[in-house]
């Protein structure tokens, strides 16, 4: 189940639960702090950049089943 933020002043966003390894969380939290972002903002930035790169490049580069 996801929750959509219906706030008229913001772009629509979906909320979801993410289970993540504690060590990875710590690394992302450190990285976010260095860039003055929240962990949520940092994860969104990482995902956005990854999707943009996938759209630009070869989809084979993102095939993790190789």
Describe the structure.
With 66 residues, this protein is mostly helical. The protein has a domain at 21-59. Helices cover 47% and strands 9% of the residues. It has 2 helices and 2 strands, in the order ββαα. It has a two-stranded antiparallel ribbon with strand order 1-2. Strand 1 (3-5) and strand 2 (13-15) form a beta hairpin. Helix 1 packs across helix 2 (39-56). It is globular and about 30 Å long. It starts with a strand and ends in a 10-residue tail after the last helix.
What is the gist of this entry?
The protein is mainly alpha-helical and 66 residues long. The chain has two helices and two strands. It has a domain of 39 residues.
Secondary structure layout plus pairing:
Elements: E1 3-5, E2 13-15, H1 22-34, H2 39-56
Antiparallel strand pairs: 1-2
Poorly predicted ranges: none
Radius of gyration: 15 Å
Number of helical segments with 4 or more residues: 2
Strand content: 5-15%
Mean pLDDT across all amino acids: 84
Number of strands: 2
Largest sheet: 2 strands, antiparallel
- The computed structural class is mainly alpha
N-to-C order of helices and strands: EEHH
Gap between N and C termini: 31 Å
Strand order across the biggest sheet?
1-2
Overall body shape: globular
Percent of residues in helices comes to 40-55%
Keywords:
mainly alpha; 66 residues; two-stranded antiparallel ribbon
